[in-house]
Amino acid sequence: MVELEWDGALAVITIDRPEARNAIAPETMEQLDKALDGAEGAGALVLKGAGDRAFVSGGDLKQLAAIRTEEDAAAMAWRMRSVCDRIADFPAPTIAVLNGHALGGGAEFAVAADIRLAADDIKIGFNQVTLAIMPAWGGAERLTALVGYSKALLLAGTGTILQAAEAEHVGLVDRVLPRESFDEAWRTIARQLATRPAGEVKRVMRGVSTAEAVTAFARLWVADEHWAAADKAMNRGK
Fold it and tell me: Does the keyword section mention Iron (predicted)?
């Protein structure tokens, strides 16, 4: 089951499949697409798994074992790649909340997001090589963009599983948060990112032209939210 929750302008998509450690099955892909449809217009989008053991443990091997031809394997890979591409292209900031382990396809799902926040006791790894396969949901390219070619080759080529602190050190995770305050901490950060300017910042950082950046700035400058914040800041300085 995939659930969509709204917290003000923040949309939260949760994969809730405890019987499979939140692994992704073909039906999950369809449900993720529908949840992304429902999240349109959000100020920020969170992706997480239910519970505290698994973010996403990968693909659901029991269900995906029915795929036996190259054509069907390619179709499945393209299907989930399209979901990850939608996350990567989402107009507002996207945050993967690693409440538990992110392994194989779960790591690919995580790197589709703009930002990764991790509890301090999780593990993450592109360990598809242990099944004699490779990342095919866009994870190889996105891992390379995050950590560089040589580190990406080392991680995916050996299937190394990283502790949260190690993942933060190499740039695979952006922030590690204490488990005891994790739920409160990630939600605080996500709510901050759900404010209107954050979406404009994302557009600029993804490479819009200088003219587009200035136009976005000017649009924010004349908005009521800017002047309310500016007045508050100026009053604090008196």
Answer: no
- Report how far residue 85's alpha carbon sits from residue 80's, in angstroms, rounded to the nearest whole number: 9
Residue 138, Ramachandran bin (φ over 0: left; ψ between -120 and 50: alpha; else beta): left
- How far is it, in rounded angstroms, from Cα 143 to Cα 149? 8
Would you identify the CATH topology of the domain 2-192? 2-enoyl-CoA Hydratase; Chain A, domain 1 (3.90.226)
Q: Which residue ranges of the chain lie beneath pLDDT 50?
A: none
The chain-wide mean pLDDT, for the chain, equals 93
The structure tokens listed for 224 are: 């009521």
Q: Please report how many Cα atoms fall inside a 13 Å half-sphere around the Cα of residue 170, on the Cβ side.
A: 22
Model confidence, pTM: 0.89
CA dihedral 193, 151, 206, 81 (to 10 degrees): -90
Token pair of 107 as six digits:
């790591």
